[in-house]
Specification:
Strands 1, 2, 3, 4, 7, 8 and 9 form a seven-stranded mixed β-sheet that branches. The protein has a two-stranded parallel ribbon with strand order 5-6. The relative contact order is 0.22. The protein is elongated, with a radius of gyration of 18 Å. It is an alpha/beta fold.
């Protein structure tokens, strides 16, 4: 779809997860291919907002949830396993892998309840008898990392960065789960 783009301005909306990762690479590639074109880039508050905006006025969107609207086509452009992040001095910091049962007594720092990945994580934890009381909810992974680094709890996150690139006050440990976080690039089939 992007190869057939013919407007003077490309408009992309993304969820906060991609505001500094995939989107900058995509815009850079587009700028090299079409140096005369302009780009409008915006960040929606959640995946549902991004999906709706693409059906209304944006050319493309990037989210971590597969769009549910039947008028949208999408492709997976990246995928990452989940990690549990804990402060470096936490009891779980020396584990090689974190299982859902390891989080039973932990204070969890979560993505917002409206994030589809958080819904999937909460369902997984419930299957293991762990209820998430949502003491702390944050929209972005960087915000979650900051709260974990300050010692307020632990979190299960998806990340597009290598685990060693986390804040020095945090340790990222693989999370034992079939869940993965994916990046979906999508567009409306009803827009010219």
């Amino acid at each position: 779809a992007i190869g057939k783009f013919g407007h003077a301005r490309l408009s992309i909306m993304t969820s906060p997860s991609f505001s500094s990762y995939i989107t900058s690479e995509l815009i850079g590639d587009f700028a090299r291919t079409c140096p005369a074109a302009k780009v409008k880039f915006d960040i929606g508050q959640d995946d549902d907002t991004v999906e709706w905006m693409v059906t209304q006025s944006f050319d493309f969107g990037i989210t971590v949830s597969k769009p549910t609207n039947p008028t949208i086509e999408c492709h997976v452009i990246d995928e990452s396993p989940l990690f549990c992040i804990v402060p470096t001095d936490h009891r779980l910091a020396k584990h090689d892998i974190i299982r859902p049962s390891d989080l039973a007594e932990e204070r969890l720092i979560s993505y917002m309840a409206t994030a589809r990945i958080q819904f999937e994580l909460d369902e997984l934890l419930l299957r293991h008898g762990i209820a998430n009381d949502r003491k702390y909810e944050i929209r972005t992974t960087s915000g979650i990392r900051a709260l974990v680094a300050s010692g307020l709890g632990v979190s299960v996150i998806g990340s597009w960065f290598e685990p060693k690139q986390f804040m020095p006050e945090c340790v990222a440990i693989p999370f034992d789960s079939d869940l993965k976080i994916q990046a979906f690039f999508f567009w409306s089939t009803r827009r010219p």
